[in-house]
């Protein structure tokens, strides 16, 4: 005598969805939604800087983003033109170049020049004036603002990735 067991697949799926703390939808629908969200994020932001920890505050660090290939000397000369004796007087403590394409492992990102100053008055003055390199004005922004934006994108992508892995039944790794 053959017995058949009737199982309410929808009810089972709903209880599984509740136990995973996700919206009650069929698992295929949910998986499609999560994957499309991840793909949309990937198209929108193909190169996101990764962080192992939240960035530390650097309130005296300014940044100039550019696609141009400037040298340290050109940036220094632009600083000196805006603020004569900036390095010698100690108002500017460092000029550093960040190749964002190397950091993000991609191409097409604008590079960053980081200028660290020693006081808030100098920072305010440079934020207002920006720098003029090769006859073009280049605004300076707070590096903390850019890093915070990068970090938010990293968190957003990590969350979507974690949701996708959970939907697939995989365990997120520590970097997620």
Automatic annotation (TrEMBL):
Q: Which domain of life is it from?
A: Eukaryota
Against InterPro entries, the record matches this protein to: DUF4732
Which Pfam families does this entry report, sorted A to Z? DUF4732
**Name used for this protein in its record:** Uncharacterized protein
């Amino acid at each position: 005598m053959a017995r058949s067991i009737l199982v309410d697949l929808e009810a089972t799926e709903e209880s599984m969805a509740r136990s995973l703390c996700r919206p009650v939808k069929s698992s295929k629908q949910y998986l499609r939604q999560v994957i499309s969200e991840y793909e949309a994020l990937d198209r929108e932001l193909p190169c996101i800087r990764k962080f192992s920890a939240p960035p530390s505050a650097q309130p005296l660090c300014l940044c100039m983003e550019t696609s141009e290939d400037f040298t340290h000397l050109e940036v220094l000369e632009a600083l000196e033109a805006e603020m004569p004796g900036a390095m010698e007087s100690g108002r500017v403590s460092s000029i550093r170049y960040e190749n964002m394409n190397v950091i993000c492992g991609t191409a097409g990102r604008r590079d960053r020049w980081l200028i660290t100053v020693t006081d808030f008055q100098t920072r305010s003055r440079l934020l207002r004036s920006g720098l003029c390199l090769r006859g073009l004005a280049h605004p300076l922004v707070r590096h903390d603002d850019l890093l915070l934006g990068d970090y938010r994108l990293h968190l957003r992508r990590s969350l979507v990735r974690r949701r996708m892995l959970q939907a697939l039944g995989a365990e997120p790794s520590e970097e997620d």
